[in-house]
């Protein structure tokens, strides 16, 4: 049997995706900490292994799609930065890597991982923290963030989402993913009305609450989880055949407001591969 795995399916956007898939008659296996088919803590190696094993057994080694929505928010708490990075980064990329052969087995699978616009609108995220996460070194990343004080959970959250997006973009274009028919892409929402956002807002200090209110959202308000689930459904559909390694930002315009001039940008000359050399010569001639 083939079907779809959705992590974080007990709540919020993951639940909205699972509901839509089931309504469309697709078999779904949910992974979460509670109220789902596979109860597993994706923040631990044991939880990830158990989840991968259960999903592979359920699917008979063939998956049509994977949606990695499990995640936790940047609230204060002892060791919270480490936990954020374990769940949001390792809980996404290590599980997805373990499921890749089952996605490849169907020949036209889709995978959607949840990033966040936090990756691009949070200032001061050290590049070496993101690099440590990409190397799987959560403890090293967490040690660095001890210096960040009260904003350490926010930096850890943004770093985890940055690393997830970069990991997905690097993997998406390789023979193991694109070449195996898998379309791997990232959805990067802005604030969306889910229990995660409610929990985060409940913990904000008065100063942080004021900062949150001043976040520019040009269309106003916050996103609807059902609307975000529709974007995932599109990214799981046949229409995503030519979508590969993209970060789809759905954030009410915050990113465009803050960073309109920063993307799209031409590829830097030192990254230019051979077939583009004629453009390099052209750029130099001007
Ligand atoms: P949510 O809190 O409603 O749902 C997240 C689910 O993940 C929960 O059911 C939770 O139990 C599960 N989960 C948490 N830790 C887990 C673990 N260790 N193992 C297994 N499951 C675990 O949150 P929401 O808002 O639906 O978030 C979905 C994704 O979207 C998350 O990755 C989040 O970081 C991301 N996101 C959310 C935004 C928002 O404003 N709500 C904005 C941008 C990104």
Short account of what is shown:
With 286 residues, this protein is an alpha/beta fold.
Report what the structure shows.
The protein is of the alpha/beta class. The chain has a single domain, classed as NAD(P)-binding Rossmann-like Domain (Rossmann fold), CATH 3.40.50.720. The chain is 48% helix and 11% strand. The protein contains 12 helices and 7 strands. It has helices at residues 12-23, 45-59, 80-106, 118-121, 127-134, 138-145, 152-172, 195-202, 206-213, 225-236, 254-259, 277-284; strands at 4-7, 28-32, 38-39, 65-68, 110-114, 183-189, 247-250. A 7-stranded parallel sheet has the order 3-2-1-4-5-6-7, sandwiched between helices. β4 (65-68), α3 and β5 (110-114) form a beta-alpha-beta unit. α1 (12-23) packs across α10, α2 (45-59) packs parallel to α3 and α3 runs parallel beside α7. It is globular, with a radius of gyration of 19 Å. The N and C termini lie far apart (58 Å). The model has no long low-confidence stretch (mean pLDDT 95). The protein binds 1,4-dihydronicotinamide adenine dinucleotide. InterPro entries: NAD(P)-bd_dom_sf (IPR036291), SDR_fam (IPR002347). Belongs to the short-chain dehydrogenases/reductases (SDR) family. Keywords: Oxidoreductase. This is SDR family oxidoreductase.
